[in-house]
Amino acid sequence: MPLLIQNRRIDHISSTAELFEKYPHLKENARIFRSKPLADIDPKCLLYVQQREFAATTPADNCVSVIGSDDATTCHLVVLRHTGTGAVCLAHCDGSSTCSEVPLLVKTVTSLSNLSKDGRLELHLVGGFNDESETSHNLSLNILAAFQKHKEDIHLETCCITEMNDIMVDGTHRPVVYGICVNVNTGEVVPASFTYKGPAEELRSARTFTGGQMADIYDSSRRLVKIGPCKWSPNPDIAWWLSQNDETILKYLSTSPMAEPPHFVQHMKSTIRFILDTPTLTACFLGVSHSSTRGLRVGNGRELSNSKGT
């Protein structure tokens, strides 16, 4: 069966406006969702997901109780959960390969679940806004279409996307909600923001910046955050960006220059510096125990600091 709303099959949707017109309760639920206060998350229990990453676990995990992600403008944050087993996945999708990413998310959750057990697969979508290029709108439709193609029943519960996640600030469209988290034990999804985005924040950002595909960053059976294999070719030309002003970096390195969070430019610069400082990195990253304070070990024995213990 394709995607369901209130136990009814969704017909073909040509626009998000049509979706909210046909299913007004989604519109009301989105209003309620975006009005919730930001959750205050303890980094010690958090598994943070960056752009073009996903992570999944179950309530049996004694190391991770919250999965979260933020800094989404045109990107969409996707939570898929089986209500019977509690297996849950959170992904930060940017539209790089939606048709192949969505099946990966479904497979990951179903592989962690006994689907014969009572319960169902529930979907929560948050992200995007009314950007001029309609990147958000196109990604919303692509994600919905990708979920509709699955044989499993998937019930759309939260849909705070595009126009329902939009607000005007000083004459500029911006997202209302930039980030979310899901409670692994209860399945509750709420707005959130995060100060800690590790481990190995710059390395993970560099993987995405240099064209890495959607990656599963967590081995729930071993309680390991994992990154790898990860490599890029030396490219000294990108040093040019470090000499540019903030406006230029925003214009050319963002899909939504007027809506980015304040730290976007500094984040881009630190990512570029990391790539320049490690031009021949080809190691496979082994991972870090989420319950320890050890560093993230890489294949050549080098260690990356991880003082937060995630």
Automatic annotation (TrEMBL):
One Pfam family per UniProt: N_Asn_amidohyd
Any one GO molecular function term: protein-N-terminal asparagine amidohydrolase activity
Protein name as annotated: Protein N-terminal asparagine amidohydrolase
GO terms (BP aspect): ubiquitin-dependent protein catabolic process
Domain of life according to the entry: Eukaryota
InterPro entries from the UniProt entry: NTAN1
Organism of derivation: Channa striata
GO cellular component, one term: nucleus
